[in-house]
Design a protein that fits this description.
Blueprint (H helix, E strand, L loop, with lengths): L31 H6 L4 H24 L32 H8 L6 H4 L3 H8 L33 E7 L5 E7 L4 H12 L7 E7 L4 E4 L6 H5 L7 E6 L5 H4 L1 H4 L5 E3 L7 H9 L5 E10 L6 E9 L2 E5 L10 E5 L4 E6 L2 H5 L6 E6 L10 E4 L3 H16 L1 H16 L18 E2 L6 E2 L3 H24 L11 H4 L13 H10 L6 E6 L7 E7 L2 E12 L2 E5 L6 E2 L2 H10 L10 E2 L6
Parallel strand pairs: 1-5, 16-21
Antiparallel strand pairs: 1-2, 3-4, 3-5, 4-11, 6-7, 7-8, 7-13, 8-9, 9-10, 11-12, 12-13, 14-15, 16-17, 17-18, 18-19, 19-20
Organism: Theropithecus gelada
Family: Belongs to the GRB7/10/14 family.
GO cellular component, one term: cytoplasm
């Protein structure tokens, strides 16, 4: 009768030997020939074998407990040690419970602090067969084999940061943003939180009150990165800027012919003008006279300056642009261009049209600022626009095209943007059963006049009946305009001009305010061709009813809302139609 082969677990670390090989027997283990002939005594021999092995392993376990923490570990957390080799005949081994097998077959040295926490997990994992560790460097004594949440580098985690943004009226909002959030993303978030109309004209302004500087962030700039270069007194403003990409629509208005020169022949068209600025291989130059403040001094000098892709240069000899006569004033790479808020008062600037090239490393030191002054607003806008185009190039054009592409992808059933423009309002005739669009301009003007007379008749009829008219001078008509965003109340002429300049000198930008000279009148402040003009709105009496007029009573309106609606469709005596209104939003 052939004896059955003993079954040894891989965790017992007992090497099996072939039948033909004759190895020395372990202590208390009979020879193979004796076991073959006396197979009836196999149970006694196996019991002795098991007892001897258990005794030896328990002695090793107690020895391992006394070792230091620096004992090297093998795979699966075992200590490096020599194990007894046993050989013998193949016979059946009694089954051992998993807990006894773990405790006796795998003596693992566990720190006293971690023993109670990992006891159950060690029982589960130690019952599995030993698998080679592909990352042995992670299983050293200094680091655990399992990565903890704090072991990951901070760059892999989604970093968040709080940013405080102010509005024009002084209110503020703290927003939690991601580290990779751009200025456009933050503006859209603020538009959503403030329930504003997203017409792609909102912008984030970097404001430095102690330096008297501010600039609009480009849509692709990272907010966290810009904030890292700002001083503690600096802050972000949330504001409208209709002129942010206006130069892509009317480039000839921004770049006078006498200020632009090209290294190659140009046909002078609008498309060619923009292509030369956006093409990195072209070499456009902006040239002209500017007032330049000397570094570290209070004096200003009028110099001939040219702006190139390599930087801003001034000529040391008249209008010469020879290389030996050009001196570098500022670099475009690590700098940004700002507008001077109060140049005359803070820096003794010769004009109100100041600009500044500020290196990114400068925070509070005004001595390192390159301060410049232009003769008029159009010249300053030309220099600042050229600086942005030469610095960012195609990035600006992509920022300009993204909102248009999104608008083209919108479904026709989606909510339209509620912005007033020349093409969004038309004259309608509802006298019949169905309404129709009035295409004849003369008929449209006649319909507008009839609508005005209808308002007067309804108002007069209600006054005769003894009820208070909804357009009574003492009630609605005198206060209804105060609910509109375009009405800014009792502000000065200088303040209204400042708001127009901040929100972009584009044609049709306007606001209404109370008149300082006539308490019963109002003033319309309008921008046309980058110049700001003021028109007084006077009250006039007709049949005991008060109306408002811009043209000495020729065209009368019951309230200011009707007046604004009319001049958004017809320019009348104005140089252009009302297109964009200045707005202040409370965050």
């Amino acid at each position: 009768t052939q004896a059955a082969s003993p079954v040894f677990s891989s965790k017992d670390k007992v090497e099996q030997t072939p039948r033909s090989q004759q190895d020395p027997a372990g202590p208390g283990l009979p020879a193979q020939s004796d076991r073959l002939t006396h197979h009836q005594e196999d149970d006694v021999d196996l019991e002795a074998l098991v007892n001897d092995m258990n005794a030896s392993l328990e002695s090793l376990y107690s020895a391992c407990s006394m070792q230091s923490d620096t004992v090297p570990l093998l795979q699966n957390g075992q200590h490096a040690r020599s194990q007894p080799r046993a050989s013998g005949p193949r016979s059946v081994q009694p089954q051992v419970s998993p807990r006894q097998r773990v405790q006796r077959s795998q003596p693992v040295h566990i720190l006293a602090v971690r023993r109670l926490q990992e006891e159950d997990q060690q029982f589960r994992t130690s019952s599995l067969p030993a698998i080679p560790n592909p990352f042995p460097e992670l299983c050293g004594p200094g680091s655990p084999p399992v990565l903890t949440p704090g072991s990951l580098p901070p760059s892999q985690a989604a970093a968040k940061q709080d940013v405080k943004v102010f509005s024009e009226d002084g209110t503020s909002k703290v927003v939690e943003i991601l580290a990779d959030m751009t200025a456009r993303d933050l503006c859209q978030l603020l538009v959503y939180k403030s329930h504003c109309v997203d017409d792609n004209s909102w912008t984030l302004v970097e404001h430095h009150p102690h330096l008297g500087l501010e600039r609009c962030l480009e849509d692709h700039e990272l907010v966290v990165q810009v904030e890292s270069t700002m001083a503690s007194e600096s802050k972000f403003l949330f504001r409208k800027n209709y002129a942010k990409y206006e130069f892509f629509k009317n480039p000839m208005n921004f770049f006078p012919e006498q200020m632009v020169t090209w290294c190659q022949q140009s046909n002078g068209s609008q498309s060619q003008l923009l292509q030369n600025f956006l093409n990195s291989s072209s070499c456009p130059e902006i040239q002209g006279f500017l007032h330049v403040k000397e570094l570290g001094k209070k004096s200003w000098k009028k110099l001939y300056v040219c702006l190139r892709r390599s930087g801003l240069y001034c000529s040391t000899k008249g209008t010469s642009k020879e290389p030996r006569h050009l001196q570098l004033l500022a670099d475009l790479e690590d700098s940004n261009i700002f507008s001077l808020i109060a140049g005359r008062k803070q820096y003794s600037a010769p004009t109100d049209h100041g600009l500044c090239i500020k290196p990114n490393k400068v925070r509070n030191e005004a001595k390192e600022l390159r301060l410049l002054c232009a003769e008029d607003e159009q010249t300053r806008t030309c220099w600042m626009t050229a600086f942005r185009l030469l610095k960012y190039g195609m990035l600006l054009y992509q920022n300009y095209r993204i909102p248009q592409q999104r608008k083209a992808l919108l479904s026709p059933f989606s909510t339209p943007v509620r912005s007033v423009s020349e093409n969004s309002l038309v004259a309608m005739d509802f006298s019949g059963q169905t309404g129709r669009v009035i295409e004849n301009p003369a008929e449209a003007q006649s319909a507008a006049l009839e609508e005005g007379h209808a308002w007067r008749k309804r108002s007069t009829r209600m006054n005769i009946l003894g009820s208070q008219s909804p357009l009574h001078p003492s009630t609605l008509s005198t206060v209804i305009h105060r609910t509109q965003h375009w009405f800014h109340g009792r502000i000065s002429r200088e303040e209204s001009h400042r708001i127009i300049k901040q929100q972009g000198l584009v044609d049709g930008l306007f606001l209404l305010r109370d008149s300082q000279s006539n308490p019963k009148a109002f003033v319309l402040t309008l921008c046309h061709h980058q110049k700001i003009k003021n028109f007084q709105i006077l009250p006039c009496e007709d049949d005991g009813q008060t109306f408002f007029s811009l043209d000495d009573g020729n065209t009368k309106f019951s309230d200011l809302i009707q007046l604004v609606d009319f001049y958004q469709l017809n320019k009348g005596v104005l140089p252009c139609k009302l297109k964009h209104h200045c707005i202040r939003v409370a965050l």
